[in-house]
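Give me the fold.
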Amino acid sequence: MRDAVDDLIWDEAPKQAGAVALLDAPFLVDDALTLTPDVRVWCDDWRDASAVPPELLVEHPSDLSGVDLALARLPKSLGALDEMAALVQGAPDVTFIGGAKIRHMNRTMNEVLGRHFTAVAASLGRSKSRVLRAWGPEGLESDWPKVREHPDLGFAVAAHGATFGGTKIDGGSRLLISALAGGGRTGGLEADDVLDFGCGNGTLSMWLAKQRKRVLARDVSWSAVAATAIAAEVNRLTVDASWGAGLDGYADHSVDAIVTNPPFHQGIANTRLDRMLFGR
């Protein structure tokens, strides 16, 4: 649903452009189309992407390169912002306009944008929202995705900028792996076909695949799914990772077990497990 942040982004945006990129801003599509027919939309969250006409969605975020105007909802993750800024490089005069609620912004965002643009300025606040305007592209190439080895577990994980947890393996994942292996009071996982639901950076998927399970992985975040696929390739493991919501597309009785490590996130908000799985 469109909100005050979208309104402020649009009000602060230049009203002339030959090509416009929308990043995680699906409700600015109609506005962008008043400027040019060349509107390229990228949404990391499948639920946001599903609100956009399919013909406007790019196949890969690298397809955003070369636009002269980029409008974005600022992510909370600085890594995600860094990757966003790198993706829209290419044109000599690209302007980046990113907005968010003020409570979710910090000065480090200016520094991140400053690595990719020669100038960064903040708007006045309105409706508890603000935008950052960046211009003068530096043309730096993206250094995402990133890969990190974890010798203690015997595999690597990967991450794009928006992949929750980055290339780290958090304590909750380590505890769950211990339980799945039969540590503590549990008997361990007895299953051949397993779904890693909300796969994130693919930590659980990698461990399961190393145990010779048939592994399916699902996440609403494209960055998570892409990172899981990269990690599987790096580790020479087989994981069927898919981008989507809930259990859509999976047949009844198609897996023996579902493993998951909540909480789940949509932007800056957490989402309940039952809502993620069953849409309730």
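The chain has nine helices and 14 strands.
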